[in-house]
Amino acid sequence: MRKVFFTALLAFFLAQTAAAQEETPKAELFGGYSYAGGNFHGWNASVAGNVNKWFGLAADFTGHYGGAIDEDGFDERQRVHGYHFGPRFSARRKRVTPFAHALFGASSLKTTLTGFGQKFEFSDTGFSLVAGGGLDIKLHDRLSLRAFQLDYLRARFFGETENRGRLGFGLVIRLGKK
To answer: Residue of 1, 43, 88, 173 with fewest CB within 10 Å of its CB?
Structure first.
């Protein structure tokens, strides 16, 4: 009788451990570095609410900054901020979570040009979309490493379309349990 009890108890604890390893967080907060090609470096932050194990809704925010000085002495500085929202699909495993998303929103561009003692500023905001995905590696029940996030970014400024790649990585804080 003792062996049956301890075997059942051991099976119960193993089942609880296995279930805990595969639990879906209610929400995930991400923050990290982002590179958008050329000399555009910046940050990426997102929050995702998980509806179930494989589907969630994400809000993604970015800021990229770049600039150049040409041989005529003109200093050009640009900053681009993006605000995107949409579905995220995840394939949760014990240690890794690959994901894909399609996000829609807006991006704003501000360019400052300085030369010959004059300063000119141009800005525009337009529709943009982000499509891509990445891979999160679970470090702890509450913390994951976003090993990479690779996205296609399409934005429209001043009547012209910009197509860029975007690469990011950082940390994900996992909140609550589904």
So the answer is: 1
Is 144 in contact with 172 (CB distance < 8 Å)?
yes
User: In what helix (H) or strand (E) does residue 18 lie, and over which residues does it extend?
Assistant: helix 2-21
Domains of the chain with CATH codes: 2-175 (2.40.160.20)
Those residues whose C-beta lies under 8 Å from the C-beta of residue 12, and which sit 6 or more positions away, are none
What predicted TM-score, i.e. pTM, was given to this entire model? 0.82
- Are 105 and 82 within 8 A, CB to CB? yes
Encode the chain (178 residues) as per-residue pLDDT tens digits. Answer: 454 344 444 444 444 444 444 589 999 999 999 999 989 999 999 999 999 999 999 999 999 999 887 777 789 999 999 999 999 999 999 999 999 999 999 999 999 999 888 999 999 999 999 999 999 999 999 999 999 999 999 999 999 999 999 999 999 999 999 7
